[in-house]
Amino acid sequence: MYDKKSLIADEFINHQEILDTLKYAEENKNNMELIRQILDKAKPKKKGKETVCAGLTHREALVLLECEIPEVLEEIKQLAEEIKLAYYGNRIVIFAPLYLSNYCVNGCVYCPYHAKNRHIPRKKLTQEEVKNEVIALQDMGHKRLAIEAGEDPVNNPIEYILDCIKTIYSIKHKNGAIRRVNVNIAATTVEEYKMLADAGIGTYILFQETYHKESYLKLHPTGPKHDYNYHTEAMDRAMEGGIDDVGLGVLFGLEMYKYELAGLLMHAEHLEAVHGVGPHTISVPRVKKADDINPEDFDNGISDEIFEKICAIIRIAVPYTGMIISTRESQEVREKVLRLGVSQISGGSRTSVGGYGEEIRPTDTEQFDVSDQRTLDEVVKWLMEMGMIPSFCTACYRAGRTGDRFMSICNSGQILNYCLPNALMTLKEYLEDYASEETKQVGEKLIKQEMEKIPKKAVRETAKNYLEKIEQGTRDFRF
Ligand code: SAM
């Protein structure tokens, strides 16, 4: 029985409800009256001084996904861009992944770190190596990391992860600092989530991989990750453990994308219904080539066009969520989806265990092939040339604006008042400390233009003053 408030995976991600949703979407894919209603519901609306977006239910979103009328698709894309601008402005948050260990006891058939892979070198960073990686990342200009590790209670116990987080936060190299550590590790217990919350992590990220239980069990044949319900209920335990911000994701290509989108949106509805807070982020990875993995072995690969449509619909359906795209995608695809609602991207990434300190990109322990191999400086310049503001901001979480507080700022359209000046100040720090001369020139011009868009005069004046202080060498201002 479908119940979004239930704490049992099979009830809040209910197979029959997904099948009924797919049927409903198929039956209504040309029902223009309904489609119009859905698009109207999703449009940003003025409420006093604020702009609010209603979002969509999984059923409504699936009708849009199923609809193949070209004009509707065009409208979906425009609406996604409009919502992105209304909620997030033209800022794009930048982060990098940091792989700590590829030891893993699971049997995930799409991942080269699976336990049966005997030829991939196994590596786990020592604290000294973590320190060197973090220095290399700080020297690129990163302020925000997502740490990644395989699941292995002996090699990567929670104490190891906590040690790494401590090391990462402790390193202050030149003007560098990692100010937010997001964590992507396997599903765990409330006690361990509590430890992560106490360590001051940002978002806890866990991809569902697939919401289709039968496929999930086959794709995860061995190891603790085989337990679908334990994995699917992880976010509820994370929240119980005191983690305010959680990040969802599907690994597209494993199962039918329509099924996955319905499941993903039901998961978001569940978190909102139970905890009053939806997902802080949603990631949309696609299966990539890796050591002994060939994406063509999976039948459900999706075209770039469908991928773009999915991104746009997620933006419309869950307007408050941060949407993440990694370097699994090429520059070309990233450019398209940035216009359709993506608000966070990684840059200059290496997906091997250790590698940021090396001159040449190591590939022996890579989790997947990186498509976008540009440097962070190139990514920053590219974003600015498209009129976007690369942001290294971590202010919300450090000022306690997490979970429902973040969501209410976002839902009331207030995000712009805090985020624009914060984004510009962190960009200024980047330009002063790490950018090439060319990037700096593009950036200075952008900052000047964007400063004029800060609505409140007092905020604008203070931000101007802070920018001058950054030029003189002070760091880490925030609103
Ligand atoms: N081990 C952790 C877990 O069990 O959730 C998470 C860390 S894993 C390093 C991060 C994510 O990479 C996985 O959740 C999976 O979605 C993704 N991934 C694994 N193999 C991949 C591949 N071949 N191509 C693209 N992404 C992949």
Question: Your description of this structure?
Answer:
This protein is an alpha/beta fold and 479 residues long. The chain is built from 20 helices and 11 strands. Strands 3, 4, 5, 6, 7, 8, 9, 10 and 11 form a 9-stranded parallel β-sheet that branches. Strands 1-2 form a two-stranded antiparallel sheet. α4 (58-66) runs antiparallel to α13 (304-317), α6 crosses α7 (158-170) and α15 (376-385) crosses α19. The longest helix has 19 residues, at 70-88. It is globular. The model has no long low-confidence stretch (mean pLDDT 95). The structure holds S-adenosylmethionine. S-adenosylmethionine is lined by residues 110-111, 148, 150-151, 184-186, 206-207, 209, 225, 251, 285, 287-288, 290, 293, 328, 367-368.
